[in-house]
Amino acid sequence: MTVFIAKRFGFMILTMIIVSLLLFLLLEYSPGSVATKVLGPYSSEEQRQLWLEAHGYMQPIYVRYFDWLFNFATGDFGESVRFKVPVADVLWSRLANTAILGGFVFAIMIPLSLTLGVLAGMREGSKLDRTISVTSIVTTSLPEFASAVLLSAIFVFGLGLLPGTSGMSRGWNIQEMILPTMVLVLYDFGYVARMTRASMAEVMTTHYIRTAILKGLPYKTVIMKHALRNAMIAPFTVIMLQINWLLSGVIVVEYFFAYKGFGALLLEASLNQDIFMIEACAMIAVFVAVVTQTLADIGYTYLNPRIRFS
Fold it and tell me: Any transmembrane segments, and where (predicted)?
């Protein structure tokens, strides 16, 4: 087990190095274009050359890469072109805001989707199963921008119960978190519920579950101690993938509700060609993706000890 964990973390580090190299070559291979993005298209050639010399861009590319990688590892992401402050001053607060939103979504979505998925899988083909399946398909088919408009029309303009934006301009307000959370839960819970339902239905047809029931074990014991643990392996993978989606895939929701999160920051950096902010956001997103998948692989062995990885 220890060797497996060490291998997974080694693979994680190797992946991050490869991604960092590709990202560096993609965005900083041409020093001239970097200077133009930082200083603006109307800067003179002399100004660009002075900026390049001052920031070490006259060095060989491999030296610049290792300097860039070291700076990133130590938390120095450069200065934002858009905000005129160090990237870290903006990035961490925006990342924390998205983490708060993701926490609200997970606190509601995971219990809801797992419960409905297990209930549907236990009674495959029943009216309850069909109702949950249809509801899951409908909600998952509705994109975030459509559900955001629909919920805003109902709760903001129709009933007047909730604020239409989540900018937190007057400080922290739990009411401003309701609509973004509802949109994300509505879109995502159906996918996890369907995966859980499929996994649970498959486990319920296995021989060891049927044998346990025929031997007279209480149905609750069979479900909780035998079926549920094995049925959670596939949904566990899906849930871990949702962390990546909530980090960088909520751009539409954050932008629609003016929520100052990581997704909205990434969009703003792209629109303004904020190269250093884009680099930092991309590396953070990849880091979270690699870490969550590593934890998912390790979690497999705890959910089912029979699973071993080479």
Answer: 99-121, 142-162, 174-193, 233-257, 277-303
CATH for 88-303 is 1.10.3720.10
> In Å, how far from its chain's centre is CA 52?
35
Query: From first to last of its 310 residues, what are the pLDDT tens digits of the chain?
Result: 576 667 777 777 888 888 888 888 888 777 767 888 777 777 788 888 888 888 787 888 888 889 888 888 888 888 888 888 999 999 999 999 999 998 999 999 999 998 888 888 887 778 888 898 888 888 888 888 888 889 999 998 888 888 888 887 777 788 889 999 999 998 888 888 888 888 888 888 788 777 877 777 787 777 777 777 777 777 887 888 788 778 777 888 988 898 988 988 988 888 888 888 988 998 898 888 888 888 877 777 776 666 554 4
Domain ranges of the chain: 2-73, 88-303
Output the pTM of the full model.
0.82
In contact, 260 and 168? CB cutoff 8 Å: yes
Question: Under 8 Å CB-to-CB from 75, ≥6 apart: which residues?
Answer: 88
User: Residues of 212-237 as b/e, b for ≥16 C-beta within 10 angstroms?
Assistant: bbeeeeeeeebbeebbbebbbbbbbb
Handedness of CA 175, 180, 186, 190 (dihedral sign): negative
Instruction: Give which of 109, 256, 94 is closest to 176, Cα–Cα.
Output: 256
HSE value, Cβ hemisphere, 13 Å, CA-based, for 14: 7
